Amino acid sequence: MKMTDEAPLARSPLHVWQEAHGARFGERHGWRLAESFAAQRSDLLLVDVTPFAKLAFTGYEILDLSHTHFPDPQPGRVVAVSGAKPGWLCHQSDEQLLFLSTRLEAEGFASFRLPGQPEHKRITTWDMTSAYAGFLLIGSDVSDVARLLGGHLNLGSSPSILSPGSCVETGFYGVPCLLARAPDDRPVVGMWVAWDVAEYVWDRLLQIGAAHGLAAAGGDVLREFGWQA
Predict the structure, then answer these.
(1) Domain ranges, residue 98
(2) Cα–Cα distance for residue pair 59/76, rounded to 1 Å
(3) Contact partners, residue 128, CB within 8 Å, separation at least 6
(4) Which of residues 7 and 214 earns the better pLDDT score?
(5) Which of 5, 11, 103, 188 lies at a C-alpha separation of 20 to 30 Å from 133?
(6) 4 in a domain, yes or no?
(7) Do 189 and 179 meet the contact criterion of CB atoms below 8 Å apart?
(8) pLDDT by residue (tens digit) across 140-164?
(9) What is the mean pLDDT of residues 29-52?
(10) What is the pTM (predicted TM-score) of this model?
(11) CA dist 188 → 29, 36, 60, 143 (Å)
């Protein structure tokens, strides 16, 4: 029997669903990823971005760090973080920031600090990658996404929720979720939910999106929208 020291590949909580629906898989940075689906040609796409790192920064001195990234630090805003580890930074509260990586990497986040984050600050970093599943809703226009979600969020579908660079903690069919819009003009809206309800939420999105032409897509469409698998 051949022995190997290679670690097993991590898998999204949607892996079984993806296999059953004909996904073509690839291996990247320690994950088995759905790269494409046979029928993903649509103007409205749903993409699994669960493998991308998610880091929560908490502590009483978060507000000081917030001023480094947000011109007017207020909960509910999203800015882009550039550099070697790009991503979205969500200002969830005066005591918590959430970093959502937009580049898939095998490692390197264990000692990650946000740009401008001093070492001496009393800020705790939590790796939330395996706690939350993430999806991107991508349309030819953000109004496509707004129509799809309209009436299905606890806070409704007011334009402010889907305005560029916004985030909100809301509910979707009884499931708590974080909804965030890209901090630019790209028609991309992300949704993050607890890992164990990922398939339920994914199925519900596809069900309500069927009338709008929503189709599951793989990671090969991400680069066009600023994400790199």
Answers:
(1) 54-127
(2) 18
(3) 54, 55, 56, 98
(4) 214
(5) 5
(6) no
(7) yes
(8) 888 888 888 877 887 644 546 678 9
(9) 88
(10) 0.90
(11) 24, 18, 31, 10
